[in-house]
Amino acid sequence: MPAKWYGLQIRCGYEDKVKSWLEREPFPVSILLPKVEVSEFKKGKRIKKLKPLFPGYLFVQMDLTPSIYFAVRKIPGVIRLLGYGNRPAEIDEADLRPFQEIAQLERPIHLDQTPFKPGDLVRVTEGSFMNFIGTVRQVDPKKGTVTVVMTILGHPCPITLPISVVEPYLG
To answer: Are strands 133-140 and 145-152 parallel, antiparallel or unpaired?
Structure first.
């Protein structure tokens, strides 16, 4: 029986560890873990990180015999093989081709993560305006700032803050 592609659900954050464990197994396996570059803001500074395109999942190509099935299930961090009940579902290689291309790029695809858009309600988490609630007027992902309109002494005041010091306000 030729090797087929399968999806593995794994613990979030364990993608690289599970990949490493799979590569040490005695059976032949191909692993697809496409990653993208994302910008995050930590302590007011922009940091670029490589993160899995599908957090908590990776794809494996293997000849799935019962012994290999149980060996994969015993790997720390593996939750299950995706499928129907106890029957793993095969994934068509054509469906994975775009993700294989992403994984083979020399420069990773960059995704900007800006969690806010104009009109969102936010709360300031630190600084002089800590615990103030306001409405997002503008987001500048290049500078890593957000302009928030807050009511201060009965007047609307637009204030530009680092994205890292605001969080969504859920009421």
So the answer is: antiparallel
Range of the domain at 133: 121-168
Q: Looking at the structure, do residues 97 and 48 belong to the same domain, yes or no?
A: yes
Q: Which of 100, 73, 70, 69 is nearest to 9 (CA)?
A: 73
Tens digits of residue pLDDT in 6-26 = 999 999 999 999 999 999 999
DSSP string, 15-51: HHHHHHHHHHSSS--EEE--EEEEEEEETTEEEEEEE
> What does the block give as tokens for 35?
């990653």
Q: 132 and 71 in one domain?
A: no
The DSSP code for 21 is H
CB 73 within 8 A of CB 80: yes
pTM of the complete model beyond 0.90? no
